[in-house]
């Protein structure tokens, strides 16, 4: 269901080899061609207001309805549950990582390295001051 401030996927089927032109309430849509089906074009549109909207493509007008965010919450919740179940079913064979596979190593850096770095920095500052 198309909802305000959410992307709405608009699909157009055309046998023409040129990029189709269409607009929603005088806002142009930018279509991309489907890689597997060359006659199918898709565009993404973010509706800003609820109610009936008009898609104009050439000499054809198609009307569609955009719902408020608070409308049809139970249907959207049901769709979300179905999408989650579908995701779980498709990713069921992905192995889970257990705590046994994770290894952490702790390295202790000797303090002498920091002392040498400190002496090099101090020596540089002392030599720089002497040269000026």
In terms of topology, how is this protein built?
Blueprint: E1 8-13, E2 23-24, E3 27-28, E4 32-33, E5 40-45, E6 51-57, E7 60-66, H1 73-90, H2 111-131
Antiparallel strand pairs: 1-5, 2-3, 2-6, 4-5, 6-7
Average of per-residue pLDDT values: 88
* CATH-scheme architecture of the domain at 8-89: Sandwich
Low-confidence stretches: none
Biggest pleated sheet: 4 strands, antiparallel
Radius of gyration: 30 Å
The H-and-E topology, N to C, reads as: EEEEEEEHH
Question: What share of the residues does DSSP label as strand, in percent?
Answer: 15-25%
How far apart the termini lie comes to 74 Å
What does this structure look like?
This protein has a four-stranded antiparallel sheet with strand order 3-2-6-7, with no helix packed on it. Strands 1-5-4 form a three-stranded antiparallel sheet, with no helix packed on it. By secondary structure, the protein is an alpha+beta fold. It has a domain at 8-89: Sandwich (Immunoglobulin-like). The chain contains two helices and seven strands; from the N terminus they run E-E-E-E-E-E-E-H-H.
